[in-house]
Design brief:
418 residues, 5 helices, 28 strands, 13% helix
């Protein structure tokens, strides 16, 4: 994701396929971090407007941020950091600026405004070019990670196909057979964000309005879920991420709240022999079904859309950010949020209770981020002092604020090295 909104030298930031790694492109160079446990493990002096990682390997696709021989927005460099000193494997040049790059186990996909180029990963041989794509000014596309392949896995590319009179259509393309798939009429306004689950069997979609998120089965294009982020307030969706089991979807935007949805079909509980013992949830579902059947279609759809079961409140709104759901199975589930401010947040997710997620820790990725964290701690201390009784106000310190969990991590995380 390209950074913006904060003048701190950060150009881009991205997770790998399972969010175990985070790459940060800055004007001074690129940095790579492991997210659990958090540590910086690599850096160099190459600027990068786009960084696409290949799982946990040393292979990286990198697009420069300038227009020079070594840093061009119109070239994709395939780098292998396991090879020294000449880490560049190949370099592909294009007539226009590269807007995004996607990688999985089989393919490298390079996205331009009006075309998409599909390469084999093994040889970086051009296999196919999709041309004449109108209106994809943001380079929106999606490619599944395929970290855990199954018999149902599908290696598909999803991209918007916008026309003056038609908006919200999504084209699917099989990057193995190189054949076009179905066209999904997903929204009535321009597509803003797309994201596959790991297996490529589910696709989350969001429009420029950002109020409704839809999830489709792929490659068939059948609609599975309709999720409502907000009632009426539009939002710019920055990222959407499934968990590894495809039962959760995390959605972040330019608003402070990140929404986490459960992807499950709610069935009314069957009545017992004594109808008076129907549960409250079953009665509510019957009432909603009955009411929605008598309403106009748009209003009925709004009634039937699922709401998020858990939320994260970021300190500030408006800054580009990426979210990811990690853990599961024997490990606790948590949510990672990387922001253009240069901070990586980690939140605990209660799968049973949901609600507001508790922030566990935050990691500074640059020196300006450390300043923000320290400022937040000072402000929290001042608020604690102002709220304390007169006799206790003089004794309120930063340590008092950290005990409330607002900034307990500032002393645990060392400043980033340069």
């Amino acid at each position: 994701m390209r950074a913006g909104g904060v003048d701190n030298g950060i150009l881009s930031f991205s997770f790998n396929q399972d969010a175990s790694l985070l790459a940060l492109g800055t004007k001074e160079g690129t940095r790579w971090y492991r997210t659990d446990p958090f540590e910086k493990y690599r850096e160099n002096e190459d600027d990068a407007a786009i960084l696409a990682m290949h799982y946990n390997t040393d292979l990286v696709a990198q697009v420069g941020a300038a227009e020079t021989a070594t840093s061009s927005q119109r070239a994709v460099r395939m780098l292998n950091y396991g090879l020294q000193p000449n880490k560049e494997i190949t370099k592909k040049h294009f007539e226009k600026a590269v807007l995004d790059v996607k990688i999985n186990a089989d393919r490298v996909v390079v996205v331009l405004e009006e075309s998409i180029h599909i390469y084999s990963l093994a040889e970086m041989k051009l296999l196919h070019t999709i041309e004449g794509i109108p209106g994809n000014v943001d380079g929106v596309c999606a490619l599944p990670g395929l970290k855990r392949r199954t018999a149902e896995s599908a290696n598909l590319l999803a991209y918007p196909f916008e026309k003056k009179e038609v908006h919200g259509n999504i084209h699917l393309f099989d990057v193995i057979s190189l054949r076009a798939g179905v066209v999904i009429e997903a929204h009535s306004s321009r597509i803003r964000c797309l994201s596959f689950n790991d297996a490529g069997t589910m696709l989350a979609t969001a429009s420029a309005k950002g109020t409704v998120i839809r999830v489709y089965r792929t490659p068939s294009g059948e609609r599975l879920f309709e999720l409502r982020r907000g009632l009426a307030t539009n939002a710019t969706i920055y990222s959407m991420a499934f968990d590894i089991t495809s039962t959760l979807l995390c959605v972040s935007s330019n608003h402070q709240t990140i929404h986490i949805f459960k992807l499950e079909t709610m069935e009314p509980e069957p009545p017992s022999k004594d109808e008076s013992s129907w549960s409250a949830s079953a009665l509510l579902q019957v009432a909603v079904d009955a009411a929605s059947s008598m309403l106009p279609t748009p209003v009925s759809d709004m009634w039937m859309q699922a709401r998020s079961f858990a939320q994260i409140t970021l300190p500030e709104a408006g800054n580009p950010n990426l979210c990811a759901i990690c853990g599961g199975g024997p490990d606790p589930v948590h949510v990672l949020v990387a922001t253009s401010e240069g901070i990586l947040y980690k939140y605990a997710l209660d799968l049973e209770e949901g609600g507001e997620c508790e922030r566990m820790i935050r990691y500074p990725l640059c020196s300006s981020a450390m300043d923000l964290i320290q400022l937040s701690a000072s402000q929290a201390a001042e608020s604690a002092a102002a709220a304390a009784p007169d006799g206790d106000a003089a004794g309120a310190t930063v340590d008092d604020a950290t005990r409330d969990g607002d900034s307990a991590d500032t002393e645990d995380v060392p400043p980033p090295s340069h």
